[in-house]
Design brief:
The protein is built from 4 helices and 11 strands. With 193 residues, the protein is an alpha+beta fold. The model is unreliable at 1-18 (pLDDT under 50).
Length: 193
């Protein structure tokens, strides 16, 4: 029997107790990848790899309200899901894995742009990420989502234009990276099918 223990980021998984290090790929000054502990990367602001998934059904995009207990940005709205690849894990695999873990769904993902951003996400944490963007097109009436309540409080569909307006009017309701994505929308290469 495998016990599910909380990870440092509040999620659950086999063998991920509070003392288990989650190792992700950081990016060195010369562009080389090297292993770093995830929380150390966020505390130091070290550039590291991440993936972000955007899910569309026609003109509307799926967004999630992060679970309140998340280690940063709990209760804020963000894109469908994000994660860091584990050390040695392919970016596409990590994106598909996270769709299954967070949203309880599976569908094809297509890679889009790679962008970098920096954002303060908690008083003692700063994200400095090089992000591979992924896009999925689904039929929202045919696709079933089973979000993990430890990760996701709520899902909703909205148009990109309405989300841009909402994020401008009430930025405190949105995760910092999602506000950046909305501001830099044209760079993400998400408008083509």
């Amino acid at each position: 029997m495998t016990l599910l223990k909380p990870k440092e980021d509040g999620a659950t998984g086999p063998g991920h107790g509070p003392r288990s290090a989650i190792i992700i790929p950081a990016i060195g000054a010369r562009g080389e990848d090297y292993p770093i502990e995830k929380m150390a990367a966020h505390r130091s602001g070290q550039l590291h790899w991440a993936v972000s998934v955007f899910v569309f059904s026609g003109e509307e995009m799926l967004i999630q309200r992060r679970a309140a207990a998340k280690y940063h940005c709990g209760g804020l709205w963000a894109n469908a899901c994000c994660t860091h690849p584990n050390w040695g894990e392919d970016l596409a695999h990590s994106a598909s894995r996270r769709v299954r873990e967070e949203l309880g769904a599976a569908f094809p993902l297509s890679p889009r742009a790679i962008i970098e951003y920096e954002a303060k996400v908690a008083p003692d944490m700063r994200e400095h990420e090089r992000v591979q963007i992924f896009r999925a097109e689904v039929d929202r009436d045919q696709t079933r989502f089973h979000p993990d309540p430890d990760e996701v409080d709520q899902l909703r569909w909205a148009s990109v234009s309405s989300l841009k307006a909402e994020a401008r009017a009430t930025p405190e309701r949105f995760a910092p990276w999602f506000r950046i994505y909305l501001e830099r929308w044209d760079e993400l290469d998400l408008d083509r099918l």
